[in-house]
Amino acid sequence: MEVKHRKIRSQNEDIQEAEQKPRSKKAHPGRRYFMFVALLGILVLGHIFIAYDLQPVRFGSKAIDTLAFSFNLQKPFYVVVVDAGSTGSRALAFSFHESIIGGNLVLDAELYTETKPGLSAYADKPKEAAKSLTVLLDKVKSVIPRSEWQHTPLSMRATAGLRLLPGHEAQDILQECRKLFEDSNFQVSKNSIAIMEGTDEGIFSWFTVNFLLDRFNMHGTSNTVAALDLGGGSTQVTFSPNPAQEKKLDGHIYSVNIFNHNMSVYTHSYLGMGLMAARKEILTYGMKLDNVNSKGVIEVRSDCINPIVTSTKWSYGGHTYLVKGPVNETHKLVKTQNFAGGEADRPIVNFAECLKIIEKYVGGIKNKPIGLKDHEIYAFSYYFDRATEVGLVDPFKGGVIQVGQFLKHAIEVCDYPNTEQPFTCLDLTFIFVLLRDGFGLKPTTKLYLYKKINDHELSWALGAAFNIIQNGL
User: Fold this and answer.
1) Helix (H), strand (E) at residue 182
2) Residue 79 near residue 468, CB atoms below 8 Å
3) Beta bridge partners of 110
4) Which residues of 162-194 are buried (b: 16+ CB within 10 A; e: fewer)?
5) Rounded distance between C-alpha atoms, residue 78 and residue 84, angstroms
6) How far apart are CA 117 and CA 309, in angstroms?
7) Which of 82, 239, 299, 433 could connect to 226 by a Cys-Cys bridge, CB 3.0–4.6 Å?
8) Higher pLDDT, 306 or 219
9) What is the three-class DSSP state of 147?
10) What would the pLDDT profile of 23-33 be if each residue is shown by its tens digit?
11) What stretches of 415-459 show up as alpha helix (H) in DSSP?
12) Positive or negative: CA dihedral 28, 29, 35, 38
């Protein structure tokens, strides 16, 4: 079996340790040298316990570097990445500095801000699409000193939302965004704006998770974790396979250099398996999409929607849908909680029929991530969002669950009429089937669900920022 290897170049360039060459400085022997050493010594000995509550075993480069940075002995620099997703656009402004010991890149802080809807919602209004990003750029400018704008790289990568649009519509939007960026006073180039390949999205997300978990400081691929990113239009699965797993994976293997260490990484982006793209296909299963009312809204009826839902509007991919429950309603008798006892008739989702539709849709996945189940798995984006909405994990702290808990909560939600959250039954069921049938995970497989690690967003944008620092825009 031939295994495909390549290095991700340009915007797909190898993610390497982002070490910038320090500016050449004249040596300062004598007094200045000893003053610096004395100052550093005072900082370490006088402030390390009080300001940072560090134990002696933690003395070393990190503690010294943190203190030096806090006393402005190092100058920060910035990178701005705009994630133009299918359901919204997010701007992440990262602040870095170079460690005084070793010159390694250190992530200090980030601004995360977002706006909805995504650029694809402006399919026939490219100028409006670009305008929607101005609020993001304004917030970014508020946290980056004006003197640094011209030195700060600004990049935008569009994901599955624009990938799913016809070529001319996507390019018109990108062109208007390019004009906006060129007038922003940030550092831009002809490559600053593009539609990102799913491969990059997966590898950058995987890099972010493992970097924030400090897994790259350990030798060997067995210490890295797998990353599952569930977006609106696509979903990515990325992990570093062992040699035995690599032989079973047909393609989708990439040679990536991480901090001067070559690693084989499997990544696959499943276009159409994002939560919103899948929702649209499941809702319209078996329908001809010509049932458009006088207002241009497409009416759909679905077995995955509770019969009590009669007029929920939902927009995706430039179209608006009027979502209703099925014609043939399903009901069940449930015991009432009053003193008289008795039973009440409750409209429910026909879970068996809904499950069949979803299983058929997910069954279209051909290239499955063999070996994923053998890795520690971190799942984020819509995996995390839906889990928090039904109380599976804490919305601030995250947590660890088993795959089967998505099914358990799906069944409970499908048995309860809720017009405020009409898609929860469908979404949870899809996530479970995707993990079980699409990715080969067992109901007992553990998932680590988080939105942030060490106060930093789990997003492919951090990996993209490292790539920009190393290779330029």
Assistant:
1) helix 167-182
2) yes
3) 94
4) bbbbeeebbebbbebbbebbeebebbbeeebbb
5) 19
6) 24
7) 239
8) 306
9) helix
10) 333 334 454 45
11) 424-433
12) positive
